[in-house]
Amino acid sequence: MSTGATSTGGTRPGRLALVRHGQTEWSLSGQHTSVTDLDLTEAGEREAEQLTELLAGLGIRPRTVLSSPRMRALRTATLAGFTVDELVDDLVEWNYGQYEGRTTADIHRERPGWEIFHDGAPDGESPEDVAARADRALEHAWQAAAVGGDVLLFSHGHLGRALAVRWAGLPIAAGSVLAMDAAAVTVLKLDRGVRMIDHANVVPLRPVGA
């Protein structure tokens, strides 16, 4: 991905804030969810509402809001108080193919050692497919951020991790070492020409004992 674009008139480029959707029934159970269009749980709705304060605390001032077209991402954006400017198909979750709806523990019983960032999914997407998609989404978002103002990208767990490592110039396999919990925020920036992960997997505060 190129970050050669420069801002005009001395305007400092904005940051890219990757936001994973709030909790769903399948994110709670650990089931892989890509094309299945689930809504948020009540807990997920509360997480989404808390994102407003979390993003403000991180100093994110969005000028542009992009979102995956999946219901869980759009509902998260709306409950966080944002109007989506554009639906971006490249922000949908990794297509898990035959592994849709299955947990990692279940998959490992028939395929020990399987890992999505290294192995992809049968009848779904390969790591190379997702890397190319992440690069396109980042290029699109950066066109808005480069002229000033932060950009919010409401997306999903594995796709968000792919976005973060591809921004940092790392191979897609590096996504396996990042975490992205429900309603987590990861912030990317360009600092003196260097692509950085500014914050990673920042989640809304939860009551003690919750």
TrEMBL record:
Pfam families reported for this sequence: His_Phos_1 (PF00300)
Alphabetical GO biological process terms: regulation of phosphorelay signal transduction system
Entry binding sites for substrate: R72
Domain of life per record: Bacteria
GO MF term set: protein histidine phosphatase activity
Protein name according to UniProt: Histidine phosphatase family protein
Organism of this sequence: Nakamurella leprariae
